[in-house]
Specification:
By secondary structure, the protein is mainly beta. It has helices at about 1-25, 215-220, 265-275, 280-295, 295-305; strands at about 25-35, 45-50, 50-55, 60-65, 70-75, 85-90, 95-100, 120-125, 130-135, 140-145, 155-160, 165-170, 175-180, 190, 195-200, 205-210, 225, 230-235, 240-250, 255-265, 320-325, 325-330, 335-340, 345-350, 365-370, 375-380, 385-390, 400-405, 410-415, 420-425, 435-440. A hairpin with a 2-residue loop joins strand 15 and strand 16. It is globular and about 75 Å long.
Length: about 450
Amino acid sequence: MNSSFKYATLLFLLVFGGYMSSQNKTCVVKLKLTNEAGKVIELVAIKLNQFNVGFTNKYGEFQTTVPKDKSYALSTHHLSFESYITKLKPGINDTISLLIKLHEKTTILADVDVFATNKPETLVGKPNYGIYDFDFYEDKLVLLTSKNELKRSEIRLTDYSGKEFMSLPIPPEAGEAQKFFHDYLGNTNLLCKDTILRIEISDNFFLITGITKKEYERSLKPVNDTANGNYYYNDQNPDYPAFNYYYLSKSNPKQHKLLYNVINRSLMDLYNFEYYYLPPRGQLEARRLADAFKVDKKVIAALMSGFTRSKFYEPLYAPLFVLKDTVCLFNHYNDRIFHFDKENVLIDSVTINYHHPKNWHTWKKQLFVDDTENKVYALFKNGANVSLKLIDHHTGQIKGVHKFANITADKIKIKDGYAYYTYRPFESTQEKFLYREVIRISKE
């Protein structure tokens, strides 16, 4: 009997052990990512054997399940941190937990607080999604798409005929998608409600990685252009009617020099008078806050009164572009274009008045540069009619106008003599399609 019991026990162990081993063929991989100070990092892309398998959540955590009988190359990707790569061999383990500390990258500005007719061409148009924004990458298009709203949106990579190579949903942790931002390095970034994403493209594939808001605000957003061995950037705050342009030598990243100060003097007078409109108790509070934050009391007063959110205030628009090797500053507040040479010395300035049209509200405070053709266009809207006026940046004069065939063209971008835009016909069930039309300049 004892022998039979031992045999039955052994048989049970063999069967149960085989059963358990057959049920535990997978391993749970748990990751937690922090910086060197221990602060968690969200939206880090995780790859296994070159395949993107997901992103860390707001707690810096990620979890996935993998087969035990394989080994993996695990890597992390985030624009603001160095990548981490390791070999993952589950073996007999049911769970693998890793705490990964990423090293922050250093950045260059870390120290700085044609058709015969004008018929539009449909490039991408699908019945199952609309195009809410787009950007260019070599001979391809990067599209922000969604069905009805941007809360659930995707990024797609296509060619100019609409052939799709790849698509990825935007991770919910990023928040609602807003628009693309093409930075001075030539990269496409997606601004979302809660974070910024970088679309890194290689051949017909792309990867979505996160960018810290600190890096975006300090090292990407302020930089207007690069040329002549310099970076050109600004310190604009939308809630203040003056800002500066600087240039920074690539060979000496600590050498920052002032290029020009932009100021709307009439708006500044109104801005400063807000302090005197406050009641005595409000003026006292403005002085107290000014002392606490080491800023001018008039700045505090304008923010307290809500002046920068009123119909009387508009953020300044005075863009800087590098056209060939000439730096051009379009200062709409003293009605001039300033030209600077390779040494950033002022060459001359010319008068402009295109921003003072008879119907003042038709000027939409937006300039476009066609880098290939070295041309500058100003955007105008009169009701539903959209047009571009060609501005001679040498003389400041209007050379002609292009009127869009699709009158409510939106999200306009210029490249190689074409105007690209999204459009949905009025009172149509059609989704937003992507179009382009050759720019044809005629007399006003």
